[in-house]
Amino acid sequence: MSQPVLSLKNVNVYQDNNAVITDINLEVFPGEFIYIIGKTGSGKSSFMKTLYGDLKLKQGEGTFVDYDLATLKERNIPYLRRKIGIVFQDFKLLPDRNVYDNLLFVLKATGWSEKREMDVKINEVLDKVGMKNAVYKMPHQISGGEQQRVAVARALLNDPEVIIADEPTGNLDPQTSVEVMQLLKEINQNGKTIIMATHDYALLMKFPSKTLKCDSGTLFEVVQRTV
Ligand SMILES: Nc1ncnc2c1ncn2[C@@H]1O[C@H](COP(=O)(O)OP(=O)(O)O)[C@@H](O)[C@H]1O
Ligand SMILES: [Mg+2]
Question: What pLDDT, in 10s, does the model give residues 73-85?
Fold first, then answer.
């Protein structure tokens, strides 16, 4: 059995000094697709922020993509983040530059410098998400669903072990949500671990997978009814 990509023992997730979720025990293995569900304010985003170093792990033990979260130093956060890809609800593309330059910006910021290599990589990830023909479009010239595809491409740039997606379909209509979901599923089938927060239960029913629920300060696995 392979090593878990994420392992949490007796972890509390904090916002300031408030414990948002307590006593999380969880292992996620390579190739899994995990949903984190729960109503607004239940702690889904806080949980994910704790994984990518936006919130400190102040209580409990955790390792994520080989980093010890409890002892994670500020200076190591960028290296942790290179091993994961993050997708947000609001896409977060830079509005002042085209798709190509959005991706180029991230490559340069994460240590790439060889022009040809960067060009090959940008074309490769855009191809993966079906957005090759939008390479010179500005974000405002493409639809929300297309922007989210580009955001997924951006998350793939450094060939991450894990993709964290925080309500990636939250701003999309149902049909577009399904398309983005199909893309994430395909990426998962190609071997990437995905942890995705959502409160879209319809989507969950369409694409069933292991599901953890955030509720009343706890995080626990739920068994999905498929009817
Ligand atoms: N930046 C913040 N500072 C303080 N409290 C916050 C912050 N962000 C979220 N919270 C609080 O943490 C709790 C969990 O929020 P959040 O993790 O955003 O939940 P969800 O993503 O499930 O909607 C809520 O009570 C929220 O008010
Ligand atoms: Mg949230």
Answer: 999 999 999 999 9
Q: What rounded mean pLDDT belongs to the chain?
A: 96
pTM of the model as a whole: 0.96
88 domain-assigned = no
- pLDDT band at residue 226 under the 50/70/90 scheme: low
pLDDT tens for 14-26 read: 999 999 999 999 9
Domain that holds residue 152: 95-159
Amino acid at 85: G
Residue 167 shares a structural domain with residue 222: yes
Q: What residues pack around ion ligand 2 (CB closer than 5 A)?
A: 44-45
CA atoms within 13 A on the CB side of 161: 16
> Is residue 50 in contact with ligand 1, taking CB distance under 6 Å?
no
Q: How far apart are CA 2 and CA 178, in angstroms?
A: 31
- How far does the chain reach from its first CA to its final CA, in angstroms? 32
Contact 187, 160 (CB under 8 A): no
Q: Could you tell me where the beta strands, DSSP code E, fall in the chain?
A: 6-15, 18-28, 33-37, 59-64, 67-68, 84-88, 162-166, 193-197, 210-215, 218-222
Total domains in the fold of the chain: 2
Nearest ligand, CA 90: 2
Question: Do 227 and 169 share a domain, yes or no?
Answer: yes
